[in-house]
Every structure is written in C-alpha cells, then in structure tokens.
C-alpha cells in the first residue's frame, strides 16, 4: 500500500485564487499541509468539486490506482474494478513535468510540478519528501475532504 | 563560311569521312555594328521609293511599302522573292535611298562626342601627337576592361571639349576649332565659332549696335549639317577611330540609306471594306518617303538654301521619329498628340519586346479564378474546379499500369470529366494521352505580386465541384492572399521531369519557412488560432462522448487514435481541452513524435515570483493567466495556445520545432489536423460578434468621462500658459513644439488609459477580446476604439492641419489649440462620432489610403532595382559567392556559409541550444544512469568538441565555441549548487540534497552525448548548398518586407521633434546612395557621460551659434564725423550656455566670414563685450553699407559647426532603467547631433 502512494498528507485551504478569479470552472487553491509542512498550489475543477477557504482535505499522490501495485498502462481502461479510487472523492491523473529547487544549503526546498491535463499542481517542501518522485512520472492525485 | 560546306556536299564519299568530335561549338565573339550604305543595299531585295500601299485593285504596288518582294502580306499570297508561304518566308528587306544624309538619333551623342574630339577641317584628333600615342597605347592594352576603356574615351572627350571651350588650333592643319554642342530645339549639331574669330566678335558688336534682328548673331554659329559630318567622318583615319574606342567606321552612324524592314514585322491588316490598317512603322516610312520626295524636288529645283534646309529638317525629324518617337528636339509644329511608335518604343518598357515578350511570355496550360478557403484540404493541396480540370491536360505516357484508366479517359472524350483531349504518338514507340487533370497531379499555384519565391509554390491537385480555386487557409501567408475576391493563377507542368523538379524545389512542404530569416511562414491563422485558444482554455472539460467526437474531428476517420486517461477520474470522468491537443500532436502510441517546447504567449503575466541571487526565476508554467505554453514529449503541460505557438513568425513556435526536429511532413500533418479540428469544432461551438460585445459598461463610461475632463483641464492650462508665454520649454523645442508635444502626450494617455479600463472590464467571453488575446485578429487598440475612445487623428504625423484660416474647421474659434479642434475624437465607434470628429477621422483615413497607393509603386520599383542588381549572385562549389562573370563577391557566404532558411536561433544562430537540451533531456530519460559531476561535464564537452572539430564533421570554430560557452554556463550552475551541498557534508540530509540537485539541474553522460551528436549532425545539414541563388533571395528578402512598411516617418522616443526618416523613404535613400539624406542625426557618445554640465559645454561647441543669438544689441551709431556699428554681447546668455565668446572671438569670426569686406583695421574691440565696426566705404554710400552690414551681422556664425542646426542632450535609456533599480540616480547622457558633420571632423 505504501509503495503505491508516494506522498500523503492533510492540507488546509489557505486562499482561493490568489491572483484573482480567471476561469469560471477552475480555481487555484493555495494550501498548506499539517504534517510535512508542505506548500501547495493546485488547480481544481470547482464546478464538480467545490472548495472553500478553510476546507481540510486529505491528499495522496500515487503512481497507480491498482491496489496490487501493477503499474498504470498509461491508456485508459474501463471497468469498475476495485481500486484505490474507491476511498477518495476527487481523483486526477497527470504527469510530473518538473522538479526544481529553491534556496540553498539547509534551507533548500524542493518543488515538484504536475500537470493534470493542464490543471497544474506545485508542491513545495522538504527535499526528503521529494526524492521518491521521478521526472515524467504518471501520477494520480487523490483527494478527500475531511 | 558557306562555300566549303557546299563543296563538301557535292563530293561523294565511299566511306564516311572521319570527323573529329569537337564537342559543342562555342561562340568566340559577337560584334554589333551598324550597316553601311552599301551593305543595306546589298541586303535589300527591292528599292522602295513609292509612298503608297495598294493600287486601285487592292494589289500591293511594286516599289511601294508593301511590295510583295518583301514577303507575303497574308496567308493567301506567297513571297515574290523566295516563293515561300506566309509560314515559311521570314521576309526580306528593302531599302530606301535618302536625298540627303541625316543623323541617326540613337547615335547623336556618339556623333557629338566624336565631333568634339576631331578637327572640323582635317578630321584628325585635336590632341597633339604625343598625347594621342599615349591614349592609343592605353586603348590597345588587352588587360583593360571594356568599361574602363569607355571611361577613358569619356575623359578624352572631356579633355577635348574643355580645350575647345575657348578655341583650339588643330595641331596638324592649324584650323581653329570652336565648341561643338547639340542644337536646341532642332535635331542638329552646332559648331560654335563665336569665341574663335576676333573679326567675328568685332562684327557682332557692330551688328548689335545697329539693332539688327537676332538671327544675324546666329551667323557666327555654324550648323554642322549631316553632309559635312559625313565628309569629316569619311576622312577619319582608322587609328583615330580606334583611339576613340569605335569598333567600326563612324560614317555608319549617319543614315544615308534606310533598310525597310520586311512586311512580317509590320503587318498590314485589311479591314472588311476597302480600308487597310497599316502598322506604325509602315506609316512612318510613308511619311519619310514623302518628306524625301519633296526634299529631292526642292534640290532639283535648285531653290534657295534656306528653303532646302526646311525640307531637310523635316526628313531628319521623320527619320529620328522612325527610330525613337520620343526623340527630343522635334519642332513644336510637328508634335502630335499620339505619335506613331518607333523602334525604341517597340523594345522599351514593361510592354516592350524585352520585358513583355522575351523575359515574360503568355503560356499554355494555365488557369485563373477567384480563390476561396477550404480547411478540409491539406496544406499541400489545391482544389481545382471540374470545368478547369476538363480543359487543362497532362500528357500521360501509356503503360500497362495505366492503360485501363487512360482507355476510359479516351472513351469519355474531351467533355466528360475524367476524359482526354488528345492522343499523341510522339515517336511511334509509346503513345501519350492528354488526359484531364486528376487528383494528385502537380500544379504550380501563384498569386501576384510575386514578391518572393514563396509566391509561387507547387501543390497537388484535388478536383472539386463549383468554380473557385481552393486551398487551406494556413497557406494564405506566403501568398499574402485573402478571400475578398482575390484571384490566383495555376500552371500545369507538362513533363515528368518538370513535375519532380517543381515538387522538390517549390513544394509547399519544402517551403514552410522563409529563406529571409528561417521563420515559419506556412502556419495556422485566423479561426484556427481562435478555436485552438478556446479549446485549450483551462476550464474546458469534455465528457467521454464530446471528447471522442473531437478526436474524430482531427482526421478523416481513418486514423488510429489512442484515447488518453481522463484528467479527472472522479467524481465524473472529464477530459480537458489540452488533452485534445495532446491527441492532435501525437494521436497514437506508435507515432514517434516527441515535441518539446516552451513559448510565452501574449497573455503571459511577467510577474516575478522570486529572485535567486542575480537570477530571476519567473513563474513560468504556473502563470495565473495560463500564458506559458509548455509542451513536453508531445503533451501540452500548460498554457493556452495562441499565435505565438501556432502562428507564423516565431522560431520557437510549435510548427517550427516540429519542422526542425521531425521534418516538414510532421509539421504539415499537424497543420492539417489542426485545420480540420478547429474548423469543425468552431462550426459547432459558434463564434460571432455582436453589438453587445462593444457596449461599454456604466463604470467605463464614468471613468472615461473623468479621464476626459481631467486631461482636458490640463490641456487648457497648458494652452493658457502658452498663450501667456509662460510655458516651460522642452530641450531643443520652441514654445509651439513644446505645447504640441505636451498635448499629444496627454491625449495619447487618454486613449491608453481608456483602453486599459475598457480591456479590464471585458468578460472573457467577449469575442473581440478573445481574438485579440489569441492573436488571430485585432489589437487592444482596435477594441478600445470600438468601445471606449477613438483617440487622436493624425495627418502626416501631426494633429489635424488647418484647412481654413487659423483653424481646422469653421466650427471652432480661430487659433484654437483645444483637443477637439485639432482632431481628437473623444467618442467611440459605438457611441458614434460627431460631425467634426467624423471629418477628422476621414482625414486620417484618406492619408492611409494615399499611403498604400503610393507605396505599392515605390516599393515595386525598389524591389525591381534590388533584383536587377543582385540577380546573378550565387554560391559556387568552392563556397564563394560570385556573380555571373565569376568575380568573387564574398569568400564565404555570410561569413559562416550557413543557410539562413535553416537557422533556429532567434538572432540567426544555427541552433537554439537551450531548446535542444530541453528536448534531449525530455526524450532521453535518466532511468538508472548516473549523473555527471561538473568536472566530468567539462571533460566530456572538451572531448566531444574535439571530435566535432574533425575535418569530416566540418563544424566551424565559432560554432564549437558557442557550444562550449553554453555548457560552461550550465556547468557553473551545477557547480554552485553542489558547493552548497558540500558545505553540508556529513549532514544526514546531504545525499538527499544531492539527489535533488541532480534531479533539478544534472545531466547524464548519455544525454550529453546525444545532445552533442545532434548538434553536429544538424549543423552539417544547415550549410548552404552550392548553386543557391542567394542574390535573388537577398533581394527578395529586402524587397518583400518593404511592401508591408508604411511610408510614414516616426518620432524619436523621448526627444521631442527629432524625427528620423524610416521605412520605405529611408530604404530608398540607402539604395540610391543619397549623399544628402533627409534627417542626418549622429549619436555622439560622451567621454564623460554622467555630468550634464560637461554635456552642455560640448553641446555648445558643436551647435551652430550666430551672433544674433549672443548679442544684446547691434546698433548703428552715427556722429557728425564717424559712423559705425556697435555690437554689445549678452554675457549672461553666453555664460548660461557655457560658450566662451568675447569680443575678440567675435572679431575673429567676422573676419573669417566670406563675402564680408572687412579688414583687421576696420574692427575695433572696445572691451571684452563690445566691439565697433567702421565700414571702409566712401561717405556717400556709408548709410547703405551700414544697413546692409546690420542685416548680415546677426547671421554671422561665432561658434560651432556650420552644418549643425541643433544638438540635443539625451539621457541614455538603458542606464535610466538600471538606475531606478539600484536606487542610485546616476543619469547618463549623450548627444544627438542633427546635421551632416562627419566630414568636418
């Protein structure tokens, strides 16, 4: 189980649309995690999954939805098999496209950028949480409000 | 030459004689010359002496101008000389004997030159023996080029004529020669002896006293008549002829016999009645015969010389006009409204023989109609109407592969579509069928004006119903076509070789980018951009049905498509619009296209997110407006695509990258798919514009009102200040100019601010806003003109001029400078213009129209001249650029031998290393490979660079250097980061950190190797090929953009009223090599550029300062005994301007001024600021002298450079910006000098 999920934490929404509302159906949320002190920017389709400031949600990043850990094929297959998805309310699929760092020395922080079909995510925090991610990895983002 | 051939034909050989194969014959030389009197007679078959055409039975008269011996006049008759038919007989010449010789007007200047050089008595050169020998030696030198020889001849003529301008005695016979010149008003040459003969002079003065008619004065000037000249020319020695660079006898320059051209070149058309329509040449000849006959009659009658001369003049004019009907010197009485065209007119000009018939011909197998768009066609295709396809044919050779098809075509006949027009049996072996055009045939497609080579390209035919030629809108750009009624031409190549050549060289796919700078030219436009922009919007989501439908849009239903995983899986499956684009770029997994690029779109907000040391890290893909387009391995990661990504003119755009990385085919296929997707999608989605799109909101109306009133108030204040003379002047401007600059500034600000407010208030669904954002059509200015405020109308770069006395229109008070009175339109197109505003708007509009009309003619001529100058330059196999005669123009084309069409970097660099590295890093995954340390990187780069320098890789040193430099930067970055980690060594986190650093900025050996290998192999392919016509390419690359420029001149930013000529007029200046350019401005950098005072000092030294500017007063002082002028200097002004001017300086400058007759003793310096001038004239004239001096004195230059009218101190722009950031107010200055001064330094 843990090998499927690459990162998991509970976040709280700080702000919605920090640069002003630009799109009807999509909002950018700024959130902070409670355990790992991670900072996150995430585009969410608020039309189907509304978010409000102060919302608390669990977030997980996994490289496959198959519970047995078989890697994702990259091509979509239908069929309602039992999967990781069952436990979450909002799931996106995308690709990790950039890893970068900020600051230097001890304060060095790492960032990963993921694009879920154009909905972007930026996750920033301690480098130790970032090392397990690889460039061009296919990722599933799973969310559940608490 | 003919004789030996004939004799050899008579001999009968028993064996075939051995003839050595000498290869193709070469022409050794061609000599052009005139025919002599006897040669013309020999060549002629008939003497023409009758100025008539037909007798009463409509039969051409013998000896007349249409004598049948000169060739058959029409198909029904045959030639009386060779008995050939109309088709076989080339025609024969006749001749026409003139009673008296006349000048050939084409050679009049040559005749004049010869006459200037020879003695009018003994026909020898006027120069002495020694000089003649010298010149002859030079003339005979075989090393000298023809051009130099003609220059030498010209210098000789000049020498002789300057000698003759006084009177020159012939060194051989002692005859005194005068000046030879062209007669004014008549076709003739005058030998002016007025200065020669002293007796004549006396005589003339005597005559002038008697108040005789002026005609008698002309008695001194001898008219050199053609008979006399002919006599002189006949006596000239051959040596003299050679000396004057004449290749033939000079007497041939004078017409004694006219060769009457064959009837074939001057056909006689018989009209239905009894009339016939004769050619201009024939009619001219008739008039010559008539003039000749009357002259001969006059001669026979032995009438007075005066009368005879009149007939001779008529003949001269007629013969002159026979050759060139525009000849100058035709008497007024003989001028007609529409002259008969002469031989020169037949040859000259656009419709003439050379440009109209030899260089350009009308051709077969062509078509022309109106064009219309069809996004369903591929970019390489052109839709051809069936009715056109039925007429245009291609001769297809019959083989057993196509015989069935062609049989069916022949059966269908010429009128049923897949038919055939003709069956040919060229040599008996294989037959050819001229079948109708069919799908896939190669055609050339062209739109005038053909300004560059992409104006004619090769397409594949698609036969379609209806009546227009159709093509994909993506190809509009190279043709510069739109569909408002444009027509285009097509040509069908008729041989297999021509087809292949056309396809390879002119195919659309092979001309996607312009050879001007390598930018892509065939790219998506208009609706394609709009729909792509809308599809890739961040909040477009599609469910399974909609997404699948869109995937089907982009092909013809035959392509394999892999459906990607939806971006949102839960709560419902949703795909984003960007995923549609992923499918478009790479529809299925077997397609090996891995596109990688980043583009900043117009909407990208350039806000800084943080700085790291000196480096500014921008937000890139996280841009809140989604303006950063990032494609990674053919997946659209972020960004709303618009013109920068898909449009033409960007080297980092999607199609450019596809073209460079995956070839023209990949780019073309992608364009086809996008065209189909977008046209079908936008057809369903709908995109239109309505009145509500341009309705301003209440808020905007209020804001605009506020803006207007505020700025009008400021304007009024400024105008008031101006009227009271209190306006603070701007540097280098007078009050009126300052006011204009201020008001223009204010008014522009109104429009800008109103525009900003308007753009901010528009909802994202607003159609004009979408179009302007994605770049398909319109700009923010266009929108704000519709919604908010039209703004200032300008005519000739100024506010509306005065059409009435002191005002622009009678609706305004006189001398009003208010915004509305000078053409400011405060209304928007939506709210409607007032009457005066409308009028001002039409003024601006008309200027634009006139501009376009004028510039097409101007730029057309400019392009033509450029092409004519450069047409023969091409690359030879030794990589040098040479002209047609093999002279080297450049040793290596462009100093690097690269093809500009293939340059990928923005500034013309061969490769964009940054992009290439990104691609390599994305396409070569790290996997288990090890990252390189900084040292390893340098070592590897060094090795690979050495490998690349090998002779077979043939990379230039500069290229390897730039590559090395690029990696140095890369390595330094990594090294810096590694250093920080090394400081932390021992920390438990250190290897974690190292891992992260490697992941962010590391590179593997494999990646580096692949990168270098691609660099080298690509560089080699980018070399220019031998045989490229780079002259024509260069000329087109300058000429074509010229047509798109405006003629206007623009302001210098910042410094008021320092205009510089730009655009077409400036290019014209450059091409003409104009010595006096219209706005000469020199930018002078100062040695000490931070001190404004020192800049002022330098300025005052350079700028022209006259006495009037620095004098307090210039007074006339008159006493009973003395009268003088006293000049008092204004020391205050002088000191303010940092001028070092004292009375002594002024005295010096007065003395140095030309045309002032003052001497040292006339000027007395009273003290350092005063001086007195005593003009040296008699008492009676002193009053006038004083006043004229007083007028002249203020204009005397006391300081500076004469040609420099103005010098302006300007702040340096760049430094200004940096100063702000560093908070150190360190302004830097430089001088802008107006005027031509470089020659004086």
Order of helices and strands of chain A: EEEEEEEHE
For the residues shown, what is the average pLDDT of chain A? 83
CATH class of the largest domain in chain B: Few Secondary Structures
C-alpha end-to-end distance of chain B: 67 Å
Helical coverage of chain B, percent range: 40-55%
How many beta-strand segments of chain A? 8
Structure characterization notes:
The complex is a heterodimer of chains A (146) and B (1241). Chain A contains one helix and eight strands. Chain A is an all-beta fold and 146 residues long. The model of chain A has no long low-confidence stretch (mean pLDDT 83). Chain B is α+β, with helices and mostly antiparallel strands and 1241 residues long. Chain B folds into seven domains: 38-101 and 259-355, Irregular (DNA Excision Repair, Uvrb, Chain A), CATH 4.10.860; 110-244, no CATH class; 365-508, Beta Barrel (Barwin-like endoglucanases), CATH 2.40.40; 526-685, RNA polymerase Rpb1, domain 3 (Enzyme I, Chain A, domain 2); 691-833, Topoisomerase I, Chain A, domain 4; 881-1040, no CATH class; 1084-1240, no CATH class. In chain B, strand 29 (794-795) and strand 30 form a beta hairpin. In chain B, helix 23 (735-761) packs across helix 25 (780-787) and helix 29 (957-983) packs antiparallel against helix 30 (990-1001). The radius of gyration of chain B is 41 Å and the shape is globular. Chain B starts with a helix and ends in a 7-residue tail after the last strand. At the A-B interface, strand 3, strand 5, strand 6, strand 7 and helix 1 of A face strand 21, strand 22, helix 19, strand 27 and helix 29 of B. Strand 5 of chain A pairs antiparallel with strand 21 (568-570) of chain B, so a sheet runs across the interface.
Topology of this protein?
The complex is a heterodimer of chains A (146) and B (1241).
Chain A: E1 5-16, E2 26-33, E3 39-45, E4 56-62, E5 90-102, E6 109-116, E7 119-125, H1 127-130, E8 138-145
Antiparallel strand pairs in A: 1-2, 1-4, 2-3, 3-7, 4-8, 5-6, 5-8, 6-7
Chain B: H1 2-10, H2 37-43, E1 46-47, E2 94-103, H3 108-117, H4 129-140, H5 146-164, E3 168-169, E4 176-177, E5 179-182, E6 189-192, H6 198-209, E7 221-224, H7 226-235, H8 238-243, E8 254-260, E9 269-270, E10 276-277, H9 280-300, H10 305-323, H11 343-347, H12 353-358, E11 366-373, E12 381-385, H13 386-391, E13 393-397, H14 403-412, E14 420-424, E15 432-436, E16 442-446, E17 456-464, E18 469-471, H15 476-479, E19 487-491, H16 496-506, H17 526-535, E20 541-542, H18 544-553, E21 568-570, E22 575-576, H19 577-585, E23 597-600, E24 608-612, E25 615-618, E26 628-632, E27 635-638, H20 643-646, H21 654-685, H22 698-724, H23 735-761, H24 767-774, H25 780-787, E28 791-792, E29 794-795, E30 798-799, E31 824-825, H26 835-870, E32 874-875, E33 881-882, E34 888-890, H27 913-923, H28 934-949, H29 957-983, H30 990-1001, H31 1005-1021, H32 1030-1043, E35 1050-1051, E36 1059-1060, H33 1063-1072, E37 1081-1085, H34 1092-1102, E38 1105-1106, H35 1107-1110, E39 1111-1118, E40 1123-1129, H36 1131-1136, H37 1143-1152, E41 1163-1167, E42 1170-1173, H38 1182-1192, ...
Parallel strand pairs in B: 1-2, 11-18, 12-17
Antiparallel strand pairs in B: 2-8, 3-4, 5-6, 6-7, 9-10, 11-19, 13-15, 14-15, 16-17, 16-19, 20-22, 23-26, 24-25, 26-27, 28-31, 29-30, 32-33, 33-34, 35-36, 37-45, 38-43, 39-40, 40-42, 41-42, 44-45
Helix pairs in contact in B: 3-5, 9-10, 17-21, 18-21, 22-23, 23-25, 26-32, 27-31, 28-29, 28-31, 29-30
């Amino acid at each position: 189980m843990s090998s499927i999920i690459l990162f998991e934490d509970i976040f709280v929404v700080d702000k919605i649309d920090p640069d002003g509302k630009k799109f009807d159906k999509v909002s950018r949320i700024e959130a902070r995690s409670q355990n790992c002190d991670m900072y996150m920017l995430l585009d969410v389709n608020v039309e189907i999954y509304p978010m409000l400031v102060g919302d608390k949600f669990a977030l997980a990043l996994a490289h496959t939805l198959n519970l047995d850990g078989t890697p994702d094929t990259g091509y979509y297959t239908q069929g309602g098999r039992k999967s990781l998805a069952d436990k979450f309310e909002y799931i996106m699929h995308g690709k990790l496209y950039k890893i970068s760092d900020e600051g230097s020395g001890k304060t060095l922080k790492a960032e990963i950028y993921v694009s879920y079909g154009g909905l972007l995510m930026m996750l920033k925090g301690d480098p130790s949480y970032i090392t397990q991610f690889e460039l061009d990895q296919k990722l599933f983002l799973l969310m559940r409000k608490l | 030459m003919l004789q030996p051939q004939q004799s050899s034909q008579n001999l009968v050989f028993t064996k075939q004689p051995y003839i050595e194969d000498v290869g193709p014959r070469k022409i050794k030389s061609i000599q052009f010359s005139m025919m002599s009197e006897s040669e013309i007679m020999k060549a002629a078959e008939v003497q023409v002496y009758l100025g008539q055409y037909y007798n009463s039975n409509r039969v051409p008269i013998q000896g007349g101008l249409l004598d049948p011996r000169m060739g058959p006049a029409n198909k029904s008759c045959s030639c009386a000389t060779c008995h050939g038919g109309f088709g076989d007989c080339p025609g024969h010449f006749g001749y026409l004997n003139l009673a008296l010789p006349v000048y050939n007007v084409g050679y009049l200047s040559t005749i004049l030159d010869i006459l200037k050089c020879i003695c009018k008595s003994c026909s020898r050169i006027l120069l002495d023996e020694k000089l003649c020998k010298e010149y002859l030696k030079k003339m005979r030198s075989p090393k000298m080029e023809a051009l130099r020889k003609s220059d030498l001849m010209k210098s000789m003529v000049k020498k002789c004529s300057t000698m003759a301008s006084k009177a020159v005695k012939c060194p051989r016979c002692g005859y005194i020669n005068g000046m030879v010149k062209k007669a004014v008003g008549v076709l003739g040459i005058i030998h002016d002896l007025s200065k020669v003969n002293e007796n004549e002079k006396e005589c003339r003065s005597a005559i002038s006293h008697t108040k005789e008619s002026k005609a008698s004065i002309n008695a001194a000037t001898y008219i050199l008549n053609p008979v006399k000249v002919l006599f002189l020319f006949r006596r000239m020695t051959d040596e003299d002829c050679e000396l004057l660079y004449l290749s033939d006898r000079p007497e041939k320059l004078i017409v004694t016999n006219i060769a009457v051209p064959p009837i074939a070149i001057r056909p006689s058309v018989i009209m239905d009645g009894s009339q016939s329509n004769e050619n201009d040449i024939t009619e001219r000849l008739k008039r010559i015969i008539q003039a000749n006959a009357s002259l001969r009659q006059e001669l026979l009658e032995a009438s007075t010389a005066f009368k005879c001369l009149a007939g001779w003049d008529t003949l001269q004019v007629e013969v002159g006009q026979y050759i060139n009907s525009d000849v100058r010197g035709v008497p007024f009485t003989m001028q007609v409204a529409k002259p008969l065209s002469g031989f020169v007119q037949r040859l000259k000009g656009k419709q003439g023989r050379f440009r109209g018939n030899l260089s350009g011909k009308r051709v077969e197998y062509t078509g022309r109609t109106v064009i219309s768009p069809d996004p369903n066609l591929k970019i390489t295709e052109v839709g051809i109407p069936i009715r056109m396809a039925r007429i245009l044919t291609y001769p297809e050779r019959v083989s057993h592969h196509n015989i069935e098809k062609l049989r069916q075509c022949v059966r269908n006949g010429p009128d049923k579509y897949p038919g055939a027009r003709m069956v040919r049996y060229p040599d008996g072996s294989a037959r050819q069928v001229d079948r109708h055009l069919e799908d896939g045939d190669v055609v050339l497609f062209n739109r005038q004006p053909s300004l560059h080579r992409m104006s004619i390209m090769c397409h594949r035919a698609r036969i379609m119903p209806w009546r227009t030629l159709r093509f994909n809108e993506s190809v509009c750009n190279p043709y510069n076509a739109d569909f408002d009624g444009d027509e285009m031409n097509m040509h069908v190549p008729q041989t297999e070789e021509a087809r292949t050549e056309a396809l390879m060289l002119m195919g659309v796919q092979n001309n996607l980018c312009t050879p001007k700078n390598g930018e892509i030219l065939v790219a998506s436009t208009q609706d394609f951009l709009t729909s792509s922009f809308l599809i890739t919007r961040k909040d477009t989501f599609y469910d399974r049905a909609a997404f699948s439908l869109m995937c089907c849009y982009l092909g013809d239903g035959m392509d394999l498509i892999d459906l990607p995983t939806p971006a949102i899986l839960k709560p419902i499956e949703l795909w984003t619009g960007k995923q549609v684009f992923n499918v478009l770029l790479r529809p299925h997994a077997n397609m090996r296209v891995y596109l990688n690029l980043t583009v900043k779109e117009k909407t990208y907000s350039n806000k800084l997110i943080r700085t790291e040391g000196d480096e500014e890290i921008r937000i890139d893909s996280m841009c809140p407006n989604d303006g950063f387009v990032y494609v990674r391995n053919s997946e659209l990661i972020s960004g709303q695509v618009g013109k920068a990504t898909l449009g033409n003119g960007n080297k980092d755009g999607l199609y450019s990258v596809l073209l460079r990385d995956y070839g023209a085919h990949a780019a073309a296929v992608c364009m086809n798919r996008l065209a189909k997707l977008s046209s079908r999608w936008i057809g369903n989605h709908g995109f239109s514009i309505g009145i509500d799109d341009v309705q301003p909101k209440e808020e905007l109306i209020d804001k605009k009102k506020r803006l207007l009133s505020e700025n009008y108030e400021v304007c009024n204040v400024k105008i008031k200040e101006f009227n009271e003379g209190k306006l603070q002047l701007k540097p280098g401007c007078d009050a009126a100019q300052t006011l204009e600059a201020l008001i223009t500034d204010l008014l522009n600000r109104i429009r800008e601010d109103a525009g900003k407010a308007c753009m901010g208030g528009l909802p994202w669904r607003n159609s004009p806003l979408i179009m302007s954002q994605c770049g398909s059509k319109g700009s923010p200015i266009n929108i704000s003109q519709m919604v908010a405020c039209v703004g200032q109308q300008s005519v000739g770069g100024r506010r509306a001029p005065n059409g009435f006395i002191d005002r622009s229109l009678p609706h305004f008070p006189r001398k009003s400078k208010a915004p509305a009175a000078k053409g400011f339109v405060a209304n928007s197109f939506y709210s409607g213009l007032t009457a005066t505003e409308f009028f001002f708007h039409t003024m601006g509009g008309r200027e634009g129209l006139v501009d376009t009309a004028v510039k097409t003619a101007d730029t057309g001529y400019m392009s033509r001249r450029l092409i004519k100058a450069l047409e023969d330059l091409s690359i030879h196999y030794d990589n040098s650029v040479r002209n047609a005669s093999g002279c080297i123009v450049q040793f290596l084309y462009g100093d690097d031998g690269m093809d500009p069409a293939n340059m990928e970097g923005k500034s013309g660099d061969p490769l964009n290393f940054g992009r290439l590295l990104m691609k390599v890093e994305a396409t070569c995954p790290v996997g288990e490979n090890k990252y390189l340390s900084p040292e390893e990187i340098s070592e590897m780069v060094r090795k690979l660079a050495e490998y690349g320098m090998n002779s077979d890789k043939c990379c230039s040193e500069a290229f390897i250097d730039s590559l090395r430099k690029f990696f140095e930067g890369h390595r330094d970055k990594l090294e810096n980061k590694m250093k920080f980690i090394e400081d932390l060594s021992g920390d438990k986190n250190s290897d974690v950190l190292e891992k992260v650093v490697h992941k962010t900025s590391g590179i593997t050996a494999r990646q580096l190797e692949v990168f270098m290998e691609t660099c080298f192999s690509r560089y080699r392919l980018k070399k220019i090929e031998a045989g490229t016509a780079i002259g024509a390419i260069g000329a087109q690359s300058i000429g074509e953009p010229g047509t798109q420029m405006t003629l206007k001149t623009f302001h210098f930013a910042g410094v008021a009223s320092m205009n510089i000529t730009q655009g077409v007029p400036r290019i014209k200046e450059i091409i003409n090599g104009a010595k006096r350019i219209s706005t000469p401005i020199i930018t002078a950098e100062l040695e000490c550029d931070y001190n404004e005072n020192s800049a002022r000092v330098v300025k005052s030294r350079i700028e022209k300062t006259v006495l009037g500017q620095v004098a307090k007063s210039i007074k006339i002082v008159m006493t009973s005994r003395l009268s003088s002028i006293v000049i008092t200097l204004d020391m205050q002004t002088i000191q303010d301007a940092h001028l070092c001017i004292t009375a002594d300086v002024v005295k010096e400058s007065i003395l140095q001024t030309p045309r002032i007759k003052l001497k040292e003793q006339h000027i007395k310096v009273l003290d350092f600021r005063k001086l007195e001038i005593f003009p040296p004239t008699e008492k009676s004239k002193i009053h006038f002298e004083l006043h004229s001096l007083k007028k002249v004195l203020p204009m005397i230059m006391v300081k500076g450079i004469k040609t420099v009218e103005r010098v302006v101190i300007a702040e340096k722009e760049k430094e200004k910006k940096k100063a702000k950031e560093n908070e150190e107010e360190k302004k830097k200055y430089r001088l802008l000098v107006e005027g031509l001064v470089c020659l004086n330094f």
